[in-house]
Amino acid sequence: KKSLVKPKEIIMLYKGTNITVTVDADGIAEFCYNAAGSVNKFDRQTLNEFDAATQAIAGDVNVKGVVVHSAKPAFIVGADITEFTTMFSATDEEMLAWIQESSGVFDRFEDLDIPTIAAINGMALGGGFEMALACDYRIAETNAIVALPEVKLGIMPGFGGTVRLPRLIGADTALEWMTTGANKKAPKALSDGALDAVVAPEQLIEAAKGMLSDAIAGKFDWRARKTEKMSPLKLGANETIMSFNTAKGMVYAKAGKHYPAPNLMVSTIEKAAGLDRTGAMALENQGFLTLAKTDAASAQIGIFLADQVVKGVGKKMAKQATKEIKLNAVLGAGIMGGGIAYQGAVKGIPSIMKDINTDALDLGLSTAAGILEKGMQRKKVTPAKMAATLNNITPTLDYNAIKDADLVIEAVVENPKVKGIVLAETETHVAADAVITSNTSTISINHLAKSLKDPSRFCGMHFFNPVHKMPLVEIIRGEDTSDETIAAVVATTLRMGKTPIVVNDCPGFLVNRVLFPYFAGFSKLVLDGADFVAVDKIMEKQFGWPMGPAYLLDVVGIDTADHAAGVMADGIPERMQKLDNDPVTLMYNANRLGQKNGVGFYDHGKDKRGRPSKTPAQVAIDMIAEHAAPAQTFSPEEVIARLMIPMANESIRCLEEGIVASPAEADMALLYGIGFPPFRGGIFRYIDTMGLANFVELADKYAHLGPIYQVSDGVREMAAAGKTYFTA
Question: Disulfide engineering: 68 pairs with which of 31, 494, 657, 702, CB 3.0-4.6 Å?
Answer without folding.
Answer: 31
